[in-house]
Amino acid sequence: MDNILKQLTEIKNELDNPFPYRDTDKIQEDFRSEFLDLSDEEDCLTGDFNTYCMNIAGTLSYVLAGKTINIPQGQIVMLQKSFFEFYKQYKFFEDKIETYKDFFQEYKNFEETRKLLLHLLAK
Questions:
Q1: Which residue of 25, 26, 55, 79 lies most exposed, with the fewest beta carbons within 10 A?
Q2: pLDDT of 38-73, one tens digit each?
Q3: pTM over cut 0.90
Q4: Domain of 16?
Q5: What's the 3-state SS for the chain?
């Protein structure tokens, strides 16, 4: 458990990168027809990715502050799934994610953090 906390403390700095707006815009351009097929409620890539990242960052804040018991259950439920599992409507670009360098790096950082948090919370 101490090792996971150490890893989470170290990774925290990796999560402070600027939001990858250029890449989310580029994804929406490159997959224009797929995004047009989504309903208005489903078509919010920037907002959805931000929500995904903020849920993980918020959960990390609780953990690093030693307040794991205070984490809202809804946050933990959302933590159970990756971005593409939680927001299935974006699956169409999951296999192309590496093309978008900044978005991909953010995704990888937050996914690693999410998995470490899940591992810690399972103990």
A1: 25
A2: 999 999 999 999 999 999 999 999 999 999 999 999
A3: yes
A4: 2-121
A5: CHHHHHHHHHHHHHHCCCCCHHHHHHHHHHCHHHHHCCCCCCCCHHHHHHHHHHHHHHHHHHHHCCCHHHCCHHHHHHHCCCHHHHCHHHHHHHHHHHHCHHHHHHHHHHHHHHHHHHHHHCC
